[in-house]
Amino acid sequence: MTVKEYPGTHTTCPYCGVGCGISINRKSHPGPSAITVRGDTQHPSNAGRLCIKGSALGETLGDRGRLLRPHLHGQATDWNTAMSFVADAFADSIRAHGPDSVAFYLSGQLLTEDYYVANKLMKGFIGTANIDTNSRLCMSSAVAGYKRAFGADAVPCCYDDLDRADLVVLTGSNAAWTHPILFQRMQAGNAKLVVIDPRASATAELADLYLGIRPGSDTALFNGLLYFLAQHQHLDNHYIQHHTSGFQEALTSARTWSLQQTALHCGVPAEKLLAFFRLFAETEKTVSFYSQGINQSGSGTDKNNAIINCHLATGRIGRVGAGPFSITGQPNAMGGREVGGLANTLAAHMEFTRDNTNRLGRFWHAPQVALTPGLKAVDMFRAVESGQIKAVWIMATNPAVSMPEAGRVAEALRNCKFVVVSDCVADTDTTRCAQVLLPATSWGEKNGTVTNAERRISRQRPFLQPPGEARHDWQIICDLAQRLGYTKAFDYSHPVEIFREHARLSGFENNGSRAFDISLLENIQRQEYDALQPVQWPVNQDNPQGCARLFNDARFFTDNRRAHFVPVTPQAPLQQTCALYPLWLNSGRMRDQWHTMTRTGRARKLLNHSEIAEIQINPQDARKYNIEEGSLIALNSAQGRMSGRATLSEAQRPGELFAPIHWSETLARDARVSALAAAVVDPHSGQPEFKQVPIQVELLPCKSFATLICPDIVAEKLWQRLNSAKDKNLLHWYRVPCAEGYRYELALRHPLNGRSLGTQLLGDIRGIYWQQIETLKNQRYLAYNNTLQLLIIAGNRWQNLPDRRPLERYLEMELPRVPAKLLRPIAPGVKVLCTCMQVSRTQITEAIGKGLHSLAALGNALGCGTHCGSCKAEISALLRTARVGVAEE
Ligand SMILES: Nc1nc2c(c(=O)[nH]1)N[C@H]1C(S)=C(S)[C@@H](COP(=O)(O)OP(=O)(O)OC[C@H]3O[C@@H](n4cnc5c(=O)[nH]c(N)nc54)[C@H](O)[C@@H]3O)O[C@H]1N2
Ligand SMILES: Nc1nc2c(c(=O)[nH]1)N[C@H]1C(S)=C(S)[C@@H](COP(=O)(O)OP(=O)(O)OC[C@H]3O[C@@H](n4cnc5c(=O)[nH]c(N)nc54)[C@H](O)[C@@H]3O)O[C@H]1N2
Ligand code: SF4
Ligand SMILES: [Mo]
């Protein structure tokens, strides 16, 4: 890879919606390994801090696994051939079946400039609103909730409010893992933390008060709170009277929710609920911070409004340290909302009205602006399945893993007439379904802007040249537009030109009617764009320096300029448990991985926290199904199947399991948790109900286990063989990328007998790749060429296998001799808790045993928890289990 010098580049993290600033520096030698990644001390969101995912970014760079050339039907080709094929397919479909026969499915991980041109092409020029985004799965209920309450998709709060609040209520958010740097800001301030979540998450572990509610019961809880506030004279009557409407109706809906009734419904002790209600009632500076436990529900929009109602009733909005704060997940979820990435909005926060479509037509000189909303994600993939959509382009998202009924979505894509995928990674579940693959640039190469969860626009700046033939997403989209004949409207040569147009549109005939307005930036020059400092919208004549907090004038974007209370009635989850599927499955994020792991899965150290999907189950349930710690289990729903390793945990309420979202079919068998979720959605937002899925659990009857460690090239061939055998003996597998190859972990149905595994695996392939095979005792085999080609270790209990991680590095050595002691069985127990300092759970428990009884003491001795801090919750839990209490630093 050729490296251009950009010394000291300031850019933004490509993962979560916190939007941390990053400083890139380079050592003298070229190549991605010379890059150092540090938190940008000047960036207001993180002031120099980074979580483990951000600080491991350097390890995710490099060409291995990247998509480097366009592909057509599995063969590498050139850009011109690929793009004319794409343009013909889209043009043919539009000509024969109309514009609604084509679709784009985008992502909150695109830059604003990419997103803007995709939306402009689809809604303005092709003339259909069949353009939706993975944000539908993520924050569309938050958008719908804000729109109902404020008349605009406008997030009132900012991070500074978290620093200055006296109470932060986290509902359905595991911020300690999912927004780690924000969570550290909350902890650093004076605020008391209340966590509301059916599972005692890492965030709950660090809370002052934890309410472990019944899944899906949040609307009742906040109705109960509203009624309590009214009963005990905690309302801000002046605010309600002058700045809102609909209070009485909302209160009427809430009135049935007495404290006792609410406690019973939510499954929490009345005293605890009362403690929360009192705390909320008495604390002026309260921020309600909420996320997917609220949004990913069949009644997610109502849940959002139930929370917002309580803030309107107390006038706690638009003030320092107070407000309802829906936190976005992806780095540019907010940017996508600005440009109209969702099928039911237009660009620049315009809704589908005649005035707005006319306005856009005039602004873009667009021939056929879409007049009605398009298909939302779930409906879009249904239309792909039915053949109504004949050509679909998927950008920067992996729907074959992340959509509900993921297996069905993958099947629909495989059967679709024409699927284009642009991705930076070659092998994903979704790229496997495409006829055309287009190589996109990735973080470090891309140039543009993103907007974080507090409306702050930051620059992503390049510091690497694109590898191979990769191109920027905006360039690829404009190429298609040009080939479809829209030459002038898509004639951009640099992202600043797109940004200027986007800024100009935000102010176009706005006159205060639309919240999103960055018109002051409409003439930004390239140098200014390159130097652009993080700024929060609106950025206009009234707010030349941007604006931290919205609605401090209590004027909203509704018809009567008042905020609207929305009366809400609690709804049960759309699907119910039953005799066949008696358990609830909850799903979400792990600390060290990002989504489908196409990037974080490349950083070896990020896999040390958990390398296989760990499914949390209450010990009581585990006993019922004969499941032990570490057993391989499968979960089945009416829609699909997933498997992983059981982790027994009191953090789960009995009857409820939790599985991570990250694993995919490219990494493991039956790995996708979203394959289990039914495609049932919230009626207002179209957001799927991911968090409450009825399932059954099954113990996999594994009688033996094997580990194979081999370089890439051997892995590929070996894998083809293992897979093609369709071996009934193989019950489960997963793989872990290591520096020079892969480690496969297999679970087999039959016990090992004598040399069975050696015969089975080495028998056929002996002599093909390597010269020397050592058959050691106890099912240990080593095959060498010049370097280690294959290491096999097998045993009848996985707990009896040696620690496999130190063995991986023998792949990199010339003529290695794996020391026999490394091959001896030792109980693993080596889960790494502190990824930054590589400190294992065993080391920490031993140190606690030796008398180190606080986070600080452990930090001093071992270094754990002293860097990014994401592991503090787990260390606290170990301290608590050891019954020593946490003596705070
Ligand atoms: N490490 C990491 N961080 C990430 C991401 C990642 O992939 N990895 N992804 C980013 C993205 S895109 C997003 S959207 C955010 C998501 O951030 P979060 O929403 O914080 O993450 P989740 O783990 O999906 O779910 C949050 C919590 O909701 C709880 N929950 C489930 N059902 C209910 C319920 O009925 N009521 C309540 N009150 N809670 C419930 C779950 O138990 C879980 O602890 O994370 C962002 N940050
Ligand atoms: N069961 C269950 N399912 C869920 C959730 C849940 O909590 N439970 N959460 C949902 C939520 S909130 C979200 S946000 C989704 C996330 O799910 P996805 O969006 O499907 O997951 P990612 O792995 O982020 O997919 C991003 C893809 O884009 C590629 N990529 C990265 N950068 C670029 C780029 O610059 N350009 C291009 N062209 N490609 C790029 C990556 O390699 C990757 O293949 O999952 C949803 N699904
Ligand atoms: S908290 Fe972590 S993942 Fe999120 S933006 Fe900051 S460094 Fe990136
Ligand atoms: Mo998300």
Q: Can you offer a commentary on this structure?
A:
The protein folds into six domains: 5-60, N-terminal domain of TfIIb; 71-136 and 332-497, 3-Layer(aba) Sandwich (Rossmann fold); 140-326, Dimethylsulfoxide Reductase, domain 2, CATH 3.40.228; 583-699, Barwin-like endoglucanases (Beta Barrel), CATH 2.40.40.20; 704-823, no CATH class; 832-888, BFD-like [2Fe-2S]-binding domain (Arc Repressor Mutant, subunit A). Helix content is 31%, strand content 18%. The protein contains 30 helices and 34 strands. A seven-stranded mixed β-sheet has the order 5-4-16-15-14-6-7, with helices on both faces. It has a six-stranded mixed β-sheet with strand order 22-24-23-26-21-25. Helix 3 (112-126) links the parallel strand 6 (102-106) and strand 7. The protein is globular and about 80 Å long. It starts with 8 loop residues before the first strand and ends in an 8-residue tail after the last helix. 58% of the residues are buried. Residues 1-6 and 885-889 have low confidence and may be disordered. Molybdenum atom binds at residues 138, 329-330.
Sequence-ordered SSE layout with sheet pairings:
Blueprint: E1 9-12, E2 21-26, E3 35-39, H1 52-55, E4 71-72, E5 75-76, H2 79-97, E6 102-106, H3 112-126, E7 131-133, H4 140-150, H5 159-164, E8 167-171, H6 175-178, H7 180-188, E9 192-196, H8 202-205, E10 209-211, H9 218-231, H10 237-243, E11 244-245, H11 247-254, H12 259-266, H13 270-282, E12 286-290, H14 292-295, H15 300-313, E13 323-326, H16 333-339, H17 354-364, H18 377-386, E14 391-395, H19 399-402, H20 406-415, E15 418-423, E16 436-439, E17 448-451, E18 456-460, H21 473-483, H22 495-507, H23 526-531, E19 535-536, E20 563-564, E21 583-588, E22 614-617, H24 619-624, E23 632-636, E24 641-648, E25 656-660, E26 693-699, E27 704-711, H25 712-724, E28 730-738, E29 741-748, H26 756-765, E30 772-776, E31 780-784, E32 788-795, H27 805-808, E33 832-834, E34 839-840, H28 841-849, H29 855-862, H30 872-881
Parallel strand pairs: 6-7, 6-14, 8-9, 8-12, 9-10, 11-20, 12-13, 14-15, 15-16, 21-25, 22-24
Antiparallel strand pairs: 1-2, 2-3, 4-5, 4-16, 17-18, 18-19, 21-26, 23-24, 23-26, 27-29, 27-32, 28-29, 30-31, 31-32, 33-34
Helix pairs in contact: 2-21, 3-16, 3-21, 3-22, 4-15, 9-12, 9-15, 18-20
The chain binds ligand MGD (2 copies), iron/sulfur cluster and molybdenum atom.
